[in-house]
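Incident review: delayed structure delivery

Summary: a single-chain prediction request sat in the queue longer than the usual turnaround. Root cause was a stuck worker, restarted by the on-call engineer. No data loss occurred. The affected request and its eventual output are reproduced below so the record is complete for anyone auditing the incident later.

Affected input:
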Amino acid sequence: MTNPPDERGAELRELFFETSQELLQALNEESLKLEKHPGDEEIVRSIRRTVHTLKGDSAACGLRELSELAHSFEDALTLESAAAHGALAEISFAAADVFAAMLAAYHGKGKMPATENLRQRINELTAAPAVKKTRRRKKSVEPARSSGKDWTDAEKRAFAQAQVAGLGLYEIVVKIDPNCTMPIAARQLIQNAISGIGQVIVVRPDAKSPAASKQVEFVFASAQPHEQIAAKCHIPTIAGDVTVTLIEAAAPAKESAPIGHQVAEPVPAPAPSPALSVSAAPDLAAAASSQPAPAEERTPAPEPGLSQALVENILRVEAGRIDNVLNLVGELIIGKSMLQQALGEFGKRYPKELLRGKFADAMAFQARVLNDLQRSVMKIRMVPVDQLFRRFPRIVRDVARQCGREVDLELSGQETDLDKGILDAIAEPLTHLVRNAVSHGIEPAEQRRGQGKPARGKIRLNAYHQGNQVVVEISDDGRGIDAQKIRAKAIELGMVASEEAARLSEAETLDFIFRPGFSTAEEVTEVSGRGVGMDVVQSVLQRLKATIHVETHVGQGTTFRLKLPLTLAIIKALMFWVEQRLYAIPLNAVSQIARTMESEVHQVDNYEVLQLRNQVLPLLRLGRPSAANIDRKSSKLFVLVITVLERKYGLIVDSLEGEEELVIKALDDQTFATDLVNGASILGDGKVVLILNLPAVVEHVARTRPGVTGMVNCGLLLNHADRARIALSSAGGQA
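Output delivered after worker restart:
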């Protein structure tokens, strides 16, 4: 059953809004290359191809203003004088910004931007005098049966490359179905279909031509037989009659110049969008999301066999659908816990029952399959951090120009995979850190020369796996952060007493930059502005169960190290009891479990500490110590040694429950009025367990500064446990 025309149009627009972000990213990257290599005609042609694709796709979706503006820019880029224009890179950057604003307006996220200034700058390209060039004429290869047509130089080169690679050249004429309501979109769909088995070199007539709604003609290079090409063109309700004519038969390919080796640039990975690319081969996922290159001056494609495999093995899936599958897997894990508990009770009641062994085998098999299913779904949600890193060359370039800095950006670890939800969430904090590194970390060129440094500063973005976490580092070789100045400012703002400030370590002092309201305009000048908005960065990372660590050396530079969980949905947790209530913390935060005596706990500056293996460990209590324990110094304690923000603490608990794989259930703000809890989970027996937010617990202790012991008021958590049970039950959870 075919979709109604309006539904087809809506789907086409949504697809365009996703793929257009990739085109804008490509336009920014090509503009950056042009800025470094002014006058490079190949880069200009690449920009023109990108603008051409944006023009055609927007016209197919009926976005007239965007299509016309892109068409004007494309026309200006076809002139020989455009490549020699000194401001072409700047105009290209401006076009990318205006196109992005127009797309946001079409998507309902703002008003349409003014385009007059960009049109004037485009007119500068057309008004520039032509540059005379002496070119060595090259022998071109043209289709034998179409020699009367007016081919461009790029098309002639593509014909020659296709023949050298041993591909046959075909002329395809497809008549558009008269009943098709979107003939321009039909052209693109037909082109998409045949791009999987070869290379589209020419598409005619132009989309704005009156004849475009009646038929479309392609010059097509492929190693596939005539029948398969014709079959690909036959699309019900879109294509009518199809004629495929062989122009030039395939010649034996020369080993020295295979067409797959002539791709000038790799296909750019997609920018973060509401859709994920799912592939049988994960490393090829980025390539699937790209729109086909425009018909005019298209870079030769890889070998048809590989191209066909890519198209057939890769799907573009909405992220929400994968989330639904992940939620169902989470429910299955809860069901597995219920069955395991029921099996345990059955074994206790009927220890000699023969069926108990069969049930256990079936449960073990189901658990293995479920674990494999969970890992497979989690891998689908993983995307390379390159999707985020690709934004930063343009950001660094713009901020450096505004601040009068000279900065180079180095990227590494782009292939590191991270959950898409986390990747989208850290985009804003990471952007803030990179902007601060450029504007306040890197010194002016004259100052750097005076310090014996290179005039151009360097910023590095790196990502890598560390256990079951992903580490993202933002480092610079700038002026660093002066801990003494931060300490003085904290005293001035009344955040800490001078006596206590003198005892703070450098790491504790640097933590002040994450306090709300710490930074001022004066601080931006004196301390490189590192504290501006850093409290927002910290809050986002805490919500993601992530941590941030600062490493700095005055005069040498600063590194911000973000440690992120691989996923937010399912975690390995250690569960324990406090005041007859069950809690959990991520297992990766626990370095060891110790037993001690109440008599071994000492008071230092109104905080409880424990000496453990030659180190003094600050202690945190989730509940109030009972009077019996205080009087009876011989009572035993469980201490969980946890790591928070690169520091170790001891968490005192009543007893341990064990390890468990927990499915995190988010709770709304109306249910929870505390940041001490990240979420909740339901166990197999229906118990609700609260998952603690360890950084918030540590901050709560530091903020409240209790007079007797470093404890967290457990009364709030007890009330929230009951609320969580009600909330999860009403939401459909089995409590």
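Verification: The mean pLDDT is 75.
Action items: add queue-age alerting; document worker restart procedure.
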